[in-house]
Amino acid sequence: MQIRNSVKAIIIKEEKILLTKNRDHEGDFYLCPGGGQEHGETFHETLLRECMEEIGNKVEIGELSHIREYIGKNHEHSAIDVNVHQVEYYFACQLYETERMSFHPSNPDQHQIGIEWIPVNDLLQYRLYPKELRKYIIRHLNGEKTPIYLGDVN
After folding, report:
1. Are strands 59-71 and 149-152 parallel, antiparallel or unpaired?
2. Which one, of 34, 14, 17, lies nearest residue 134 by Cα?
3. Would you say residue 31 lies in a domain?
4. How many Å separate Cα 131 from the centre of its chain?
5. 4-13, 68-77, 90-99, 133-142: which range is least confident on average?
6. Which domain holds residue 34?
7. Which residues constitute the signal peptide according to the record (predicted)?
8. pLDDT tens figures, 20-51
9. pTM for the complete prediction?
10. How many folded domains does the chain comprise?
11. In a domain, 56, yes or no
């Protein structure tokens, strides 16, 4: 078993966050755009590629906001994620202003069915993974200090 790195974008504009909308047997769920680092890629290269694949837009990458570990055997989906250990790096990002605001993903994830702007203050009403991230995004938008390392959370 290997530990997998994943790099994610937190894109907030006008108090809304851009998320991929996904669907599984439990219903709709949301994720920050991004994904797995490939051999030979830097985090920034991974994030730029993944954003083009999932949202169809270029992003400007800012500061590292959060690091989250996911050790599957410790969480609600342990039956299928028992061998998963992933470290996710969340960066504050912005869409390039010159980019069209229409989104055409070039290679969406298997469960991805769309892209949505969700009001940040409504995040607790949505099934966003990791769930713990919701409160930190809300706190950050409200000017509160938040931790970078979130631990093994879901």
Report:
1. parallel
2. 17
3. yes
4. 11
5. 90-99
6. 4-73+82-133
7. none
8. 999 999 999 999 999 999 999 999 999 999 99
9. 0.91
10. 1
11. yes
Residue 114 pLDDT class (50, 70, 90 cuts)? very high
Q: State which amino acid sits at residue 148.
A: I
DSSP state of 120: G
Beta bridge partners of 105: none
CA distance linking residue 87 with residue 69, whole number of Å: 4
Residue 22 lies in a domain: yes
Residue 30 CA neighbour count, 13 Å, CB half: 23
DSSP designation for 128: B
pLDDT in tens, 65-101: 999 999 999 988 888 888 899 999 999 999 986 545 5
Q: What does 62-113 look like in DSSP terms, one character per residue?
A: EEEEEEEEEEGGGSTTHHHHTT-EEEEEEEEEEE-TTS-S----SS--TTEE
How far apart (Å, rounded) are the C-alpha atoms in residues 150 and 22? 23
CATH number of the domain enclosing 120: 3.90.79.10
pLDDT for residue 101: 57
Q: How far apart are CA 91 and CA 65, in angstroms?
A: 5
